[in-house]
Design goal:
Number of helices: 9
Radius of gyration: 17 Å
CATH class of the largest domain: Mainly Alpha
Largest sheet: none
Number of domains: 2
Distance between the termini: 54 Å
Number of strands: 0
Helix content: 55-70%
Strand content: under 5%
């Protein structure tokens, strides 16, 4: 991917990870069509979107805008959450968990919040209904 344009890098990263445009768009909290504009070169992602894309693909943001691709360890990726102006629940949970080891958030809870954040709204509602029913049934 060394000499590719950003639009081509985004396409290659998405397809090599077997992600759909819809999946990446939901992760970025935008429509599939809006994300598609990035891959077509009609729009350029802003800084915050580039940070989230780098986190999604486990690469450094500079590799999206420069001409290289080197995997980045997961422990460096969580630092990006600090710069996210639209912090999602999993970003807040990760920061809380990392900065406060005595926190009640286990790694499983953080992971659950991360999955929840990546789900479409309709699936989130279904998951909450299922969880509520499970808690009631076990009470």
């Amino acid at each position: 991917m060394s000499d590719l344009l950003l639009k081509d890098k985004l396409y290659d990263l998405r397809t090599s990870n077997d992600y759909t445009q819809k999946y990446v768009a939901e992760y970025l909290n935008m429509t599939r069509a809006a994300y598609g504009h990035y891959e077509k070169g009609k729009r350029t992602p802003n800084h915050q979107t580039l940070l989230r894309l780098a986190k999604l693909y486990h690469i450094d943001i500079s590799e999206l805008i420069n001409n290289s691709t080197t995997p980045v360890p997961d422990d460096r990726l969580t630092d990006f959450a600090t710069y996210d102006l639209h912090k999602k629940s999993h970003d807040k949970a990760l920061l809380l968990h990392e900065n406060h080891p005595s926190s009640s958030l286990s790694k499983d809870k953080v992971k659950l919040l991360e999955f929840y954040d990546r789900m479409p709204d309709m699936d989130r509602r279904k998951l909450l209904l299922i969880a509520e029913k499970m808690v009631k049934d076990n009470s």
